Structure to design on (467 residues):
């Protein structure tokens, strides 16, 4: 007499069992391939980070900087050479202090008899507090642990963290690309290309906001793509987007990803969709709002500041316009032609990516893509709207940034924003071009990235634009 196993009431189908076994084996192989690809990307990314940081230090040592602001700052922060920054064995750390990093480091320093630290000047309020706070905290990570703030420690520890964040970001872009495009070859190519971003050897190597913004925005996007829009997912993505906003003001645009994902729930009338959107908005926008409130309390007791009496007293918009000359078409001057030329490759790549995404879509489908529904499911793998509708908010985000850069910004900061997390869609467009266009296009893209990366390091070290 054959005994039947407990809990088994149906005979086992041998064909079904074999199919499940094959699926499990394929999943295991696929997972192994993904892990191997991530390991390769991480190794390459770390090697490039080490090479570029070394090149930056070397080129800074071999040439006289056009501007000496970094040296003047080191004298005020380290007048007695206590920290070996203004003179001594760690003077080479000044290679990482150029352009905006001078403002960041000056604001991060506590006030001393010879230096006024913090947000001492109104024009510095254009900079979000994330990188300044990080420099302040890292300045206390000294071997002596005597409670004194060290500008040398601030530079070196923050630069180390920035390079670590920059090394990890391409791996996160690879994982995000797999989820959105479902194309392993495109995902790997995009991530590999992003390692050689235009700012790879400059603002991604120095203690600036770019590396941290890229990392935190990618973590938020991965959280958002992880599954259904539960409260845990929305809160997790909102947290990372808020953290990104503490580093760059354009992080507020990341809220658009959550809003775009919630549109189908809103259209379906689900009661939790509106509270989710409100909470996400409060979290994502809170860093900018709280910073504006702090700035108002700090600077507006002084009479005569025009932005203090406005209906919405935004110091950010005032400082950008008054001190940095940012505004619609204000940068469109003949003297700025070289900066437009520097930004042209990034802007053209944004345009190319948008064109590829919508090239087979009708105008009705383009409009329909802006108001997504739960029925928008891709029919294949790749970058086009018909195959990867989940990429729509990424394309719109890149397009919005491109328009802002072209019309109402210092256009050359396109080189800073073209990071793995700054504009993921740009790297998908670059990967599509490398994989599907003629060989000369592939060589043009790879050659540009290599040239811009290396030349940028030399120019940055010499205190020459682009910043």
């Amino acid at each position: 007499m054959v005994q039947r196993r407990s809990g088994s009431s149906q005979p086992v189908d041998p064909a079904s069992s074999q199919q499940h076994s094959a699926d499990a084996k394929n999943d295991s192989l696929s997972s192994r391939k993904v892990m191997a690809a991530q390991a390769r990307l991480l190794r390459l990314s770390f090697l490039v980070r080490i090479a570029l940081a070394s090149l930056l230090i070397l080129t800074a040592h071999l040439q006289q900087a056009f501007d000496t602001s970094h040296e003047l700052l080191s004298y005020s922060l380290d007048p007695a050479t206590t920290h070996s920054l203004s003179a001594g064995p760690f003077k080479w750390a000044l290679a990482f202090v150029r352009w905006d990093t001078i403002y960041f480091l000056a604001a991060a320093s506590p006030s001393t008899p010879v230096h006024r630290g913090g947000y001492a000047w109104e024009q510095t309020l254009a900079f979000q507090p994330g990188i300044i706070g990080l420099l302040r905290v890292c300045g206390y990570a000294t071997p002596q642990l005597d409670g004194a703030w060290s500008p040398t420690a601030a530079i070196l520890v923050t630069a180390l963290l920035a390079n670590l964040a920059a090394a990890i970001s391409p791996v996160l872009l690879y994982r995000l690309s797999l989820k959105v495009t479902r194309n392993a070859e495109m995902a790997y190519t995009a991530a590999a290309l992003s390692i050689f971003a235009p700012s790879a050897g400059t603002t991604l190597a120095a203690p600036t906001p770019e590396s941290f913004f890229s990392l935190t925005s990618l973590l938020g996007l991965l959280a958002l793509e992880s599954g259904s829009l539960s409260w845990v997912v929305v809160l997790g993505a909102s947290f990372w987007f808020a953290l990104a906003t503490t580093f760059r003001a354009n992080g507020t645009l990341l809220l658009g990803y959550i809003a775009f994902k919630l549109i189908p729930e809103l259209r379906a009338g689900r009661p939790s969709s509106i509270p989710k959107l409100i909470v996400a908005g409060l979290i994502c926008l809170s860093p900018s709002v709280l910073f504006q409130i702090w700035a108002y309390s700090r600077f507006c007791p002084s009479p005569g500041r025009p932005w203090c009496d406005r209906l919405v007293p935004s110091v950010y918009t005032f400082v950008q316009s008054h001190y940095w000359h940012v505004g619609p078409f204000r940068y469109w001057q003949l003297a700025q032609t070289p900066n437009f030329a520097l930004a042209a490759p990034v802007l053209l790549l944004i345009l190319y990516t948008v064109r590829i995404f919508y090239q087979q879509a009708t105008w009705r489908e383009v409009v329909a893509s802006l108001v997504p529904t739960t029925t928008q499911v891709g029919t294949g793998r790749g970058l086009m709207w018909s195959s990867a509708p989940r990429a729509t908010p990424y394309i719109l985000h890149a397009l919005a940034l491109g328009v802002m850069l072209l019309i109402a910004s210092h256009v050359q900061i396109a080189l800073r924003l073209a990071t793995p997390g700054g504009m993921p869609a740009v790297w998908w467009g670059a990967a599509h071009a490398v994989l599907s266009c003629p060989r000369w296009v592939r060589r043009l893209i790879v050659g540009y990235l290599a040239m811009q990366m290396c030349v940028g390091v030399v120019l940055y070290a010499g205190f020459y634009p682009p910043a």
About this structure: Residues 37-60+158-461 form one domain. Residues 16 and 22 are 10 Å apart (CA to CA). Residues 1-12, 14-20, 22-26 have pLDDT under 50 and may be disordered. The chain has one domain: 37-60+158-461.
